[in-house]
Amino acid sequence: MDSGMIGKIEKAKRYATERHRFHFEAFTVNIDGDNNAHRVTFDNNKWICDCNFFHTRGVCTHTMALEEVLKGMFPVPAEA
Questions:
Q1: How many CB atoms lie within 10 A of CB 46?
Q2: Average pLDDT, the chain
Q3: Rounded to two decimals, what is the model's pTM?
Q4: CB under 8 Å to 56, separation ≥6 — which residues?
Q5: Does some domain include residue 11?
């Protein structure tokens, strides 16, 4: 492996530990739940999940799990 690539890999590893560098705007994740798969979207600082619980409460297991996985990497989402 050439020294240029080694430098890029080292820089990528450093960036990965510096979570303040990342600014999420929008993304979609499919989560395999115990009973069904669910599609969760983060857009415009808001969560959206296709599960019934989310539609009645504005929060659900799936959105909370993603908040935990991504803790410290993006601002707290606005209320749904």
A1: 14
A2: 88
A3: 0.74
A4: none
A5: no
Cα–Cα distance for residue pair 58/80, rounded to 1 Å: 5
Q: Which residues contact 59 (CB under 8 A, 6 or more apart)?
A: 47, 80
Q: What is the residue range of 46's domain? A: 23-80
Does some domain include residue 12? no
- Phi, psi dihedral angles at 37 (to 5 degrees): -85, 145
Give the count of domains, the chain: 1
Q: Is residue 3 part of a domain?
A: no
**DSSP codes joined into one string, 34-64:** SSSEEEEEEETTEEEE-SHHHHHHS--HHHH
